[in-house]
Amino acid sequence: xxxxxxxxxxxxxxxxxxxxxxxxxxxxxxxxxxxxxxxxxxxxxxxxxxxxxxxxxxxxxxxxxxxxxxxxxxxxxxxxxxxxxxxxxxxxxxxxxxxxxxxxxxxxxxxxxxxxxxxxxxxxxxxxxxxxxxxxxxxxxxxxxxxxxxxxxxxxxxxxxxxxxxxxxxxxxxxxxxxxxxxxxxxxxxxxxxxxxxxxxxxxxxxxx
Length: 209
Prior knowledge:
Blueprint: E1 21-23, E2 26-32, H1 39-47, E3 52-57, H2 71-86, E4 89-94, H3 99-106, H4 110-118, E5 123-127, E6 133-139, H5 155-160, H6 200-203
Helix pairs in contact: 3-4
């Protein structure tokens, strides 16, 4: 889902790949930036057996020019909330805004450079199944955040609240996730009937809106 100025470049995606990836560690799910605010997107991964979640964020939050928000707190709140609700480890990763990027983006514009330098930085952290932060945080600096985790620690908290299992009222609530690729065009050929599929060259045009 593109946010704010991203809508000038990107169109909406689809849910064709919105599923956890199976690994030796367990099923790993991922959402980008503001998508971690969407309860249904998060629940879709929880209900498909997510064991570890990855949240990715840009290096700054330059939406407001005056009295910018506490970006660190915003990111931490989302990370803690998903960890606690899903009973998973949440690996929150933010990019680092280095000097080369500032120079490239501002392109000599002093006002643009000022916005980038004054924008609050994002934060990288790890939160556990009880919602507690694990290890150190990284904010406004480049580095590696290495934290040992044990996915078995999610078992006990889930015995209390498994929001996609015993703690879900399946008789009252349901979520439908359409994982079909959303095509930009559906072609009906005279000889092939209504089941014809658009050529791949045309499907790629949906990213060029």
